[in-house]
Design goal:
CATH topology of the largest domain: Cytidine Deaminase, domain 2
Distance between the termini: 30 Å
Order of helices and strands: EHEHEHEHHHEHEHEEHEEHEEHE
Shape: globular
Largest sheet: 6 strands, mixed
Number of helices: 11
Radius of gyration: 19 Å
Helix content: 25-40%
Mean pLDDT: 87
CATH architecture of the largest domain: 3-Layer(aba) Sandwich
Strand order of the largest sheet: 6-13-11-9-7-8
């Protein structure tokens, strides 16, 4: 249950934090962006009430959120996993160093779950972006005019099966499958770099399937804490998929954030790609 207090948005890179902020503000609720230095868009942040924060200063962040009257918190935006040695801790965080070291010994979901516990122990309620801004969540079905072929549907189901099998390893949230052939699995490089790698491999002639064959499939890990790091797609995702010669993009309805859905549909139609929200059980359900 949302409590109506000022919502703290811990803001990484990309446009998603601002889409969430706009949605919440549109409902009449005040937001305060806590923008992560080196990641949040410094120009876009200026349009909102905000305070800058640094990674590793968890104590300072908690005090700042309390001073702004924040009880509920959303984490949203791009952020690469830092090395512990790169962080500069405040005193509160230094006291937690053994816990932090243990949190880093695992995948991203493992790490983020530990971060979530830190804030919960200090009285904050962590929410998913989909809870405070439900209209930017991907819905089931097509977004745009283009439809998936039967071959695309088979590729989607194979990709989804692969992602589910990989879930225990806490690896990534995306794969690319073309004509039943797994071309790429997302790991530390992120979705954009994975898709760019496919575009490069196609140009080098190492991918023989013709353009317009292959699907980018995105899904959260089984059992993932959906308050953190839900899969996301935006106009740039569609443009990159088109450049890589793919047929379309499929992601889990209700568990994928869509940045600028109108633009996503426009770009997809222009590039003749499909964008599809699917059930966790597969595209044919």
């Amino acid at each position: 249950m949302l409590d109506g207090s000022t919502l703290a948005i811990i803001c990484g890179g990309g446009s998603l934090p601002f889409a969430v902020a706009d949605s919440v503000i549109g409902r009449g609720r005040r937001v305060m962006l806590f923008a992560i230095r080196g990641w949040a868009d410094a120009t876009a942040v200026q349009a909102y009430a905000h305070r800058w924060i640094a990674l590793g200063k968890l104590g300072q962040l908690c005090r700042a959120m309390r001073s702004e009257g924040c009880r509920e918190v959303v984490f949203i935006g791009q952020l690469s996993r830092p090395a512990v040695s790169e962080l500069r801790f405040d005193w509160d965080t230094l006291l937690l160093l053994p816990r932090i070291a243990r949190a880093f010994r695992g995948g991203d979901d493992h790490l983020l779950s530990h971060v979530g516990k830190f804030f919960e122990e200090r009285g904050f309620n962590l929410l998913g972006a989909h809870e405070v801004a439900p209209e930017i969540v991907l819905r089931r079905g097509l977004l745009g005019r283009c439809a998936a072929s039967s071959r695309d549907l088979a590729d989607i189901d194979r990709g989804l099966t692969l992602l589910q099998a990989l879930s225990p390893f806490d690896v990534g949230q995306a794969v690319i499958v073309a004509d039943n052939h797994v071309l790429a699995i997302e790991a530390a490089e992120g979705t954009d770099a994975m898709v760019a790698r496919i575009a490069e491999q196609r140009q080098l002639g190492r991918i023989r399937s013709r353009k317009g064959v292959g699907v980018l499939v995105k899904a959260p890990k089984l059992g993932q804490d959906q308050r953190f790091d839900l899969p996301s797609i935006g106009p740039e995702t569609i443009e990159r998929a088109a450049y890589a010669g793919l047929a379309g993009v499929a992601a889990i309805a209700g568990a994928t954030i869509v940045a600028e859905p109108v633009r996503v549909a426009t770009v997809a139609d222009r590039e003749n790609l499909f964008v599809m929200g699917i059930d966790a059980g597969g595209s044919r359900q």
